[in-house]
Write a structure and sequence with these properties.
By secondary structure, this protein is mainly beta. It contains 2 helices and 13 strands. It has a single domain (27-226), classed as Beta Barrel (Porin). The longest helix is centred in the middle third of the chain and has 4 residues, at 114-117.
């Protein structure tokens, strides 16, 4: 696949506007296959282009940085019995190794459904902003178990780290555990409930890292889905 993305900033005072804040190209390949009870997927992508940022003193824009960023992803799944599936998962989104130079190494997920990939707590919806331009590594184990004709139980454990740990004592962002249950009696209608816990690591709380607080987080939800 090949994606072109152009971003303009046309709000605010005249000196804060730009018709060409960024121009990027994303070239990627994706391969998925299965054999019996085993399936797998691998993906790689590279971003290039130009990007610049707003400044406050003086108000305006920086010179352009050259974009050079990548994504690598792999998934391996197995279904030992019909009701159970187990997946091993690793994603790496590059980060910026030297924010002071004129090269920008942070992979932008653009309009991705990050909720689907990086945990139900939505800690990384806006990458690179939510990772402070340090990129992201996500190693995960995911399980799904069918409970009878109407219910499905799910569990996922994520281990998050930054991709670029310059200036940090640790690159560990933290771990997230997601538990979920979905029940459906009627086609097109389902009820889902879930509970998630995030154990914060040093890179999550370090002001030089993500700087997003010291506390662990607990989150739960109940949801009704109707499709038509």
């Amino acid at each position: 696949y090949l994606l072109f993305h152009a971003r303009d900033e046309l709000v605010g005072p005249e000196e804060e506007r730009s018709e060409d804040a960024s121009r990027t190209r994303t070239l990627g390949v994706r391969w998925s296959a299965s054999a019996g009870a085993v399936d797998w997927r691998v993906e790689a992508a590279y971003q290039s282009g130009e990007i610049r940022f707003r400044t406050t003193d003086p108000v305006g824009w920086t010179d352009y940085d050259d974009v050079g960023a990548y994504l690598m992803a792999a998934r391996f799944g197995v279904r030992p019995v019909d009701a159970l599936s187990v997946s091993l998962w690793y994603d790496r989104l590059s980060g910026d190794d030297d924010p002071g130079d004129d090269e920008y190494g942070v992979f932008d997920t653009l309009f991705a459904t990050n909720h689907k990939f990086y945990g139900y707590m939505d800690l990384f919806l806006d990458i690179p902003r939510h990772t402070a331009r340090r990129g992201l590594q996500d190693g995960a184990v995911k399980l799904s178990y069918v409970l009878g004709p109407h219910g499905t139980l799910g569990a996922a454990l994520h281990g998050f780290r930054v991709a670029s740990a310059w200036g940090l004592s640790s690159g560990r962002i933290g771990e997230e555990l997601d538990l979920s249950y979905r029940w459906s009696q009627v086609d097109g209608v389902s009820v889902a409930a879930g509970l998630s816990y995030f154990l914060a690591g040093a890179a999550w709380s370090d002001p030089a890292g993500l700087g997003r607080g010291d506390d662990d987080q607990l989150w739960g939800h109940v949801m009704l889905d109707v499709t038509f």
